[in-house]
Amino acid sequence: MLSSGDSNGLGVEPESVLDGPHDLGLTTTRVGRRVHYFESVDSTSTVLRALAEQGAEPGTVVVADEQTGGRGRAGRVWFSPPGDGVWMSVLHESLLPAERLAPLSVAAAVSVAEALAGETGLDVRVKWPNDLLVGGKKLAGLLVESVEVEGAQRVVLGAGVNVGLAADDIPEELVGTATSLSIELVRPVRRLDILRLVVEALERCFEEYELECVTAFRERWRRISSTLGREVTIAPGTAGRSGPLFTGTVTDLAESGALVIRFASGGTREIWFGDVTLRGTNDD
Fold this sequence. Notes:
This protein is α+β, with helices and mostly antiparallel strands and 284 residues long. It is built from 5 helices and 14 strands.
């Protein structure tokens, strides 16, 4: 189980570069071989993208105490206050073609959700494609972005987990939709424990994904999906280009990683991008 403590610190000096997973007590062999730790950044993914363009090795991790411009899906900002969460990004190099890497965020969400549930006992659910929920409230989110590096197919996977966020710290616009490990467990939780958990889960995820892509995660997604079998409203599209709303029932996760929707008419459609909301709720 996770240990409790008065401090949420990572036990290292900010603005430091740590060589080797053992500096943070990691058991990984690839992810976390080098960790860049900052007190405050705009976005850990922005920093890691720049490092990748400068030749950073796969498995490099960027961690920050605070993000002033953390990114969520569809151009949203991820609330990342100082000392209250694990705000991190990982550089992954893949042998797969670029078009097969987009669903990696689904696989990563499943992997991290399983790890958190296993350690905490919480019922952590996945909201397609990459949000983690507890009791219908957002606990964590993941985002995959491609990186142009000559001769290699690389992605930056950003992860944000609300760890020590207190109920009084949640901004008014997120009240009722966000939560944290400390709130749900009603006790302090160390960020270092969660950082280790996430890094180790992602290393396993990358290894499995390279072998089987989404196939390795579909049944696991079905077990912990927050929307499977539920009637939902879909706003399809990407940031700034949403299509018309439509309603249907979530029936499956396709082999492509798309969400399969069945309409009342009996027809089906695969959704690649968009916001999914349970009917009668505002869980966007």
